């Protein structure tokens, strides 16, 4: 019998309409069977992990949901070096995995603490925070290839991981069943200035893994980025917009616009990439300077910019349509102020941002 569900019960935004069926797949073979069956039947399918990166239409979707629930954390240690290979089921909660590995002294993931969602989603958008990203440790994934109907092992290099991107992002070509990472014991190199200040160290210095995890959790809580049922600032999809990355010429144009608007002596966050010459800007800084401060309300106050972090758009009893109106207002405001077009980070299911 089909199991009808509402997406609002399965997403961290608490938004989204009905779907006709929900199937939970707890192994790679079950993923292949459930997704493959839907593909062969031509019904379409929404593959769901933790629901932390989705914006779903109010009218719902006409297709079934396959929720990836593959469990397990398997650690293979190299006793001579302190290194290990860890394979994690795609259905494991990401922060629970980080907590488990950090508790065992494997520190590479500590800076990725507090990120909601499932492990299988982390390579798709190359999850990153506080100076690190999953690309630093990922070695391979097991996936179901929907084009060939095969389960196969894929090296991380083949995923073309970039800033909040991969070969899988924005496609329906495959479903991840598990991921494998290379981790080592020992302290963590701190690569992000805000985290360094919280820890009382300099960027490039090292800190104990447990201390890094606690500092990151404290920073994320202060921004409403750790899920809390009692805090409506966490009813979000995390960062709604990605940080814009500009080539050198475009960055110079935007710099001139910023200084024309805010003064020649203005200092603002910008992160050059020595290899590509590109410049990454802070979407949060642009949003706030364009006039959208913390708590800025969308239609009827039913949605709003988080009271703690300008990158998060929160549900205050509204609808997906309300959220998209607010997102479009912010996108257009930043573009009008600085000539930079922001792009959504969450996946939009059955909806688009208004023109």
Layout of helices and strands, plus pairs?
Elements: E1 5-6, E2 18-19, E3 22-25, H1 28-41, E4 46-48, E5 54-56, E6 65-68, E7 73-77, E8 83-89, H2 94-103, E9 128-129, E10 132-133, E11 138-145, E12 150-155, E13 174-184, E14 188-189, H3 193-199, E15 206-207, H4 209-222, E16 236-239, E17 245-246, H5 248-262, E18 270-272, E19 279-281, H6 283-289, E20 303-305, E21 312-315, H7 320-338, E22 347-349
Parallel strand pairs: 3-6, 4-6, 5-22
Antiparallel strand pairs: 1-2, 7-8, 8-13, 9-10, 11-12, 11-13, 14-15, 16-21, 17-19, 18-19, 20-21
Using brief descriptors, characterize the structure shown.
single chain; 355 residues; alpha+beta; Uridine Diphospho-n-acetylenolpyruvylglucosamine Reductase, domain 2; Uridine Diphospho-n-acetylenolpyruvylglucosamine Reductase, domain 3; Uridine Diphospho-n-acetylenolpyruvylglucosamine Reductase, domain 1; 3 domains; five-stranded antiparallel beta sheet; three-stranded parallel beta sheet; globular
Task: Give a concise summary.
The chain is α+β, with helices and mostly antiparallel strands and 355 residues long.
């Amino acid at each position: 019998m089909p199991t009808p569900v509402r997406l609002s019960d399965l997403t961290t935004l608490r938004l989204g309409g009905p779907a006709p069926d929900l199937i939970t797949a707890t192994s790679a073979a079950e993923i292949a069977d459930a997704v493959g069956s839907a593909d062969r039947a031509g019904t379409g399918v929404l593959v769901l992990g933790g629901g932390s990166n989705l914006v779903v239409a109010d009218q719902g979707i006409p297709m079934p949901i396959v929720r990836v629930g593959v469990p397990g954390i398997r650690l293979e240690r190299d006793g001579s070096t302190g290194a290990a290979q860890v394979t994690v089921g795609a259905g494991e909660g990401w922060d629970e995995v980080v907590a488990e590995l950090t508790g065992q002294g494997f520190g590479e993931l500590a800076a990725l603490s507090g990120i909601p969602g499932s492990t299988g989603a982390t390579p798709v958008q190359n999850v990153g925070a506080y100076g690190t990203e999953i690309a630093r440790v990922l070695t391979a994934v097991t996936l179901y290839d929907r084009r060939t109907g095969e389960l196969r092992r894929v090296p991380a290099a083949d995923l073309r991981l970039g800033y909040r991107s991969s070969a899988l992002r924005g496609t329906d070509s495959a479903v991840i069943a598990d991921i494998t990472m290379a981790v080592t014991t020992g302290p963590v190199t701190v690569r992000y200035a805000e985290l360094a200040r919280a820890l009382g160290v300099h960027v490039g210095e090292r800190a104990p893994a447990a201390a890094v995890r606690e500092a990151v959790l404290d920073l994320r809580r202060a921004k409403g980025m750790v899920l809390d049922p009692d805090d409506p600032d966490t009813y979000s999809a995390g960062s709604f917009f990605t940080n814009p990355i500009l080539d050198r010429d475009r960055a110079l144009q935007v710099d001139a616009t910023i200084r024309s608007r805010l003064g020649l002596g203005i200092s603002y966050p910008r992160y050059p990439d020595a290899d590509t010459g590109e410049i990454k800007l802070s979407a949060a800084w642009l949003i706030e300077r364009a006039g959208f401060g913390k708590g800025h309300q969308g239609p009827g106050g039913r949605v709003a910019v988080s009271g703690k972090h300008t990158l998060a758009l929160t549900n205050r009893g509204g609808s997906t349509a309300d959220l998209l109106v607010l997102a479009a207002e912010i996108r257009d405001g930043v573009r009008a102020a600085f000539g930079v077009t922001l792009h959504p980070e969450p996946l939009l299911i059955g909806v688009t941002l208004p023109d």
